[in-house]
Specification:
InterPro entries: Homeodomain-like_sf (IPR009057), HTH_RpiR (IPR000281), RpiR-like (IPR047640), RpiR-like_SIS (IPR035472), SIS_dom (IPR001347), SIS_dom_sf (IPR046348), WH-like_DNA-bd_sf (IPR036388)
Pfam family, one: SIS
Order of helices and strands: HHHHHHHHEHEEHEEHH
Radius of gyration: 21 Å
Shape: globular
Strand content: 5-15%
Number of helices: 12
Structural class: alpha/beta
Largest sheet: 5 strands, parallel
Helix content: 55-70%
Organism: Scopulibacillus darangshiensis
Distance between the termini: 57 Å
GO molecular function, one term: carbohydrate derivative binding
Keywords: DNA-binding, Transcription, Transcription regulation
Strand order of the largest sheet: 2-1-3-4-5
Length: 274
């Protein structure tokens, strides 16, 4: 289990100061690799003791053990980038971009918690109603996921702030799926907070295991890349969503096929002429 997975696993036990250290580590791992704890603490604006406590909270014996892992991580990342640059010099731009997406998808797949994945799939497959929320750069993800959930299961609705009455029509056993990527939309965060107050199960997709949505998500899927970039995160997120849809389908293939057949029937009737 590397430092990123440890942060994700222990996020609820981290203090506000420790989360500040975690955020800096995720964004600037090279700073940890190159500097002593005192220097890192100065850059973050916390005490050296806080940095050491953070290491202990993640299960490391001390800063030295974490630093050794970070150094190996940075070294391997740099070597991978060099090899990738050499290999891609003769590739067309579409090949470069697609290979980068492939590498990010593979990296994220290794970070997915199987128990979290199964929990999310089970909750979606058993939900009375599903509300999917994502605004601005996250809207396309929310829209596609809503469509696919209705394609194989039904009961999903896309949240639209201008027309919705928010959570008033969600029943016990409902699920809220929320997409929250940097910069984090305040309306989505408000919606998630309200859902938690009402006891609604929340599934969150975000770009960091310490983003604002973390405190409210019952099942969290952080797409943590080297840099916070929605264009880079989007292909990875869509791949993860597709895997979840496959999981929902597999829970009850007969029901899913009935929904698919019904959708195709409506589509042919309403949108095409024989």
């Amino acid at each position: 289990m590397d430092f990123r997975m440890r942060i994700q696993k222990n996020r609820n036990d981290l203090t506000k100061g420790m989360k500040k250290v975690a955020g800096f580590l995720l964004k600037e791992p090279a700073a940890f690799a190159a500097n002593p704890a005192r220097k890192v603490a100065e850059e973050i604006g916390v005490s050296e003791t806080m940095v050491v406590r953070f290491c202990h909270a993640l299960g490391y014996k001390g800063y030295g053990e974490l630093q050794k892992e970070i150094r190996d991580f940075v070294f391997n990342l740099k070597n991978h980038d060099k090899e990738e640059h050499t290999d891609q010099e003769t590739l067309a731009i579409y090949e470069k971009r697609m290979l980068e997406d492939q590498a990010n998808i593979q990296q994220t797949a290794k970070m997915v918690d199987p128990q979290m994945f199964d929990l999310a799939v089970n909750k979606l497959a058993e939900a009375e109603r599903i509300l999917v929320a994502g605004r601005r750069s996250s809207f396309s993800m929310a829209h596609w996921f809503t469509f696919m959930l209705n394609f194989v299961y039904g009961k999903a609705r896309l949240f639209r702030q201008e027309t919705d009455i928010h959570l008033e029509d969600l029943l016990a056993g409902s699920v809220l799926v929320a997409f929250s990527f940097y910069r984090y939309d305040l309306d989505t965060l408000w919606l998630v907070e309200e859902a938690k107050k009402r006891g609604i199960f929340v599934i969150g997709f975000t770009d960091s295991s310490i983003s604002p949505i973390v405190d409210y998500a019952d099942a969290l899927f952080p797409v943590q890349l080297t840099e916070q970039s929605v264009p880079d995160a989007a292909p990875v997120t869509f791949s993860l969503l597709n895997a979840i849809i496959s999981g929902v389908y597999a829970k009850n293939p007969e029901r899913a096929n009935r929904h698919i057949d019904a959708y195709e029937s409506r589509r042919l009737k309403n949108f095409f002429i024989d």
